[in-house]
Design brief:
This protein has a single domain, classed as P-loop containing nucleotide triphosphate hydrolases (Rossmann fold, 3-Layer(aba) Sandwich). Helix content is about 50%, strand content about 15%. The protein is built from 8 helices and 6 strands. The protein has a 6-stranded parallel beta sheet with strand order 2-3-1-4-5-6, with helices on both faces.
């Protein structure tokens, strides 16, 4: 069977790894519905990167509520059939919360998350993109998003480490771990076609793609 067996595909990875770019590319190739995070709609985000301690909780809850609305929209999309490709995994949301919230704030967040968690669909495939931390830092700093210029290298390193630990233990859906260091996944390139063939050939719940 080909890619049509995956009705709900999630592309994940830390900031700067290229998940949104690949998500759009996959959705276009498959003619699939596109489900994207919308950080520009989070009013606290620019303030968060300036003062994380003060704005962590409202930022985290804003993302949580946004993601809940988005994953609930999957039900509506399913009524019309077809595939969906998303650039976020709902189950990953606590990863950020654990990193930035105080103990009391995390307790409040966890209570809210538990009440909302049951609404999230499980993907048929997760494509987890990886890159060297220095590569990620370089990509983030090279982007033209003004609010990202204030992200510290320490935060990016801690975030990448959290992602690694999360997906090391993640078993709810099949995962293809992709090392992006030597891949061009910014357009319909030979590397993109190579990735498509690798996805089509998946047979187990956890596999790896590393182009030497």
């Amino acid at each position: 069977m080909g890619l049509e067996r995956y009705r709900y595909i999630v592309v994940e990875g830390p900031i700067g790894v290229g998940k949104t770019t690949l998500t759009k590319l996959l959705a276009e190739h498959l003619g699939a519905n596109l489900l994207l995070e919308n950080p520009e709609a989070i009013p606290f985000l620019p303030k968060f990167y300036t003062d994380m301690q003060r704005y962590a909780l409202p930022t985290q809850l804003s993302f949580l509520f946004q993601r809940v609305e988005q994953v609930e929209s999957l039900t509506q999309m399913d009524l019309f059939g077809g595939q969906t490709v998303s650039d976020f995994l709902f189950d990953k949301d606590p990863l950020f919360a654990e990193l930035v919230l105080s103990d009391d704030e995390f307790g409040l967040y966890s209570n809210i998350y538990r009440h909302l968690r049951v609404r999230a669909a499980t993907p048929d495939l997760v494509i987890y993109l990886q890159a060297d931390i220095d590569t990620l830092i370089g990509r983030v700093h090279a982007r033209s998003r003004e609010y990202e210029a204030k992200i510290s290298d320490i935060y990016l390193r801690k975030l990448a480490e959290r992602y690694s630990r999360f997906f090391y233990d993640y078993t709810d859906a099949p995962v293809l771990m992709v090392n992006t260091e030597n891949l061009d996944l910014t357009g319909p390139s030979d590397d993109f076609r190579l990735l498509l063939r690798r996805i089509e050939g998946m047979r187990s719940a956890r596999e790896y793609f590393n182009k030497a």
